[in-house]
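Incident log, structure service

09:12 report received: a user says their structure output differs between two submissions of the same chain.
09:20 pulled the input from the user's history:
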Amino acid sequence: MALTATIYNFDIELADSDRGVYETLALRVARHPSESEEYLVTRVLAFALEFSDGIAFSRGLSEPDEPAISVRDLTG
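09:34 re-ran on a clean worker, output below:
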């Protein structure tokens, strides 16, 4: 039987006074069976620390050449 991804829910109250970013984030993050919990939490922390318009998680382990998170603007 194939293993499937596990979905984790994160509710984050983001308050970064240095950047003036105040957001409520409700994230649903998939964890691949071969991904460690530490790596999952690291991805979520990086997402929160770098939060800005256009931020998104990559496809994960299926695209190993892409970063775990990236910010894209209107030009791509």
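09:41 both user submissions now match this output. Likely a transient worker issue. Closing.
09:42 reviewer note: Helices lie at 37-49. The two ends are 39 Å apart (CA to CA).
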